[in-house]
């Protein structure tokens, strides 16, 4: 079975992020007033708007397919400078420079499946932070009710119309391993023509490790980072028991 990230066009179509995240990260980049590092930048959903705003941004991603798509999008949107795209691993990178803002948007930290991997990534991040720099990330908040409702079930995540009159449906089959805090997802993209006939069906798989808020605070602290702000949404609402998203702003200790 393929890695779902090789289907960069389908990813782009279906993964729109969390409401308000592009605007939030763009605002934070402007406030940082220096170079930005976007880890797991994907197809440039956030990096490209930053470069368009005149910000010097470096994007790193493991997937060459995603980076190739990002390069095409950047060219299509007139980005000729200020954006550097590199294939790399957030667990082990050494860019020989520092950044005023380092970010991991759209829950990509959750792709690190072991505590040792999380620690390696945070060590690299701490090393690359400029004096006074900020590290910002967001993750979803694990909810026991969602685990129960979604475990070993096929769920329709959404349908997405194409200009051609075709439509793409995205389905997920999720299995949880609560001992290791893993969510194993089999994702299916199903493309239908205007008559409703399936013309393409592709299947991929990915695994994430969900993380609880208190656990994340401790991880950051252990790696020389302190949380200075936290929000429950990109509208900067307070984080509380009803929040479904956790946005953390951290600085070096």
TrEMBL record:
One of its GO terms (molecular function) is methyltransferase activity. The keyword Plastid does not apply. Keywords: Methyltransferase, Transferase. One of its GO terms (biological process) is methylation. It holds the Pfam family Methyltransf_25. Residues 36-133 form the Methyltransferase domain. InterPro entries: Methyltransf_25, SAM-dependent_MTases_sf. It comes from the Bacteria. This is SAM-dependent methyltransferase.
């Amino acid at each position: 079975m393929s890695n779902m990230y090789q289907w960069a066009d389908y990813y782009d179509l279906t993964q729109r992020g969390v409401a308000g995240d592009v605007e939030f990260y763009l605002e934070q980049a402007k406030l940082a007033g220096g170079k930005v590092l976007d880890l797991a930048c994907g197809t440039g959903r956030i990096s490209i708007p930053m470069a368009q705003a005149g910000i010097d941004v470096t994007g790193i991603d493991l997937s060459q397919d995603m980076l190739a798509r990002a390069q095409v999008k950047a060219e299509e949107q007139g980005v000729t400078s200020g954006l550097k795209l590199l294939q790399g691993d957030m667990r082990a990178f050494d860019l020989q420079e520092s950044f005023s803002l380092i970010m991991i948007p759209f829950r990509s930290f959750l792709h690190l499946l072991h505590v040792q991997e999380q620690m390696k990534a945070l060590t690299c991040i701490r090393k690359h932070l400029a004096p006074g720099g900020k590290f910002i990330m967001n993750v979803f908040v694990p909810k026991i009710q969602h685990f129960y409702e979604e475990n070993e079930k096929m769920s329709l995540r959404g349908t997405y119309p194409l200009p051609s009159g075709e439509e793409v449906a995205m389905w997920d089959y999720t299995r949880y391993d609560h001992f290791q805090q893993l969510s194993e997802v089999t994702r299916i993209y199903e493309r239908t023509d205007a008559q409703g006939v399936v013309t393409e069906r592709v299947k991929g798989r990915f695994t994430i490790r969900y993380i609880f808020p208190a656990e994340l605070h401790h991880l950051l602290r252990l790696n020389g980072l302190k949380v200075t702000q936290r929000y429950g949404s990109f509208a900067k609402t307070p984080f509380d028991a009803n929040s479904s998203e956790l946005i953390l702003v951290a600085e070096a200790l």
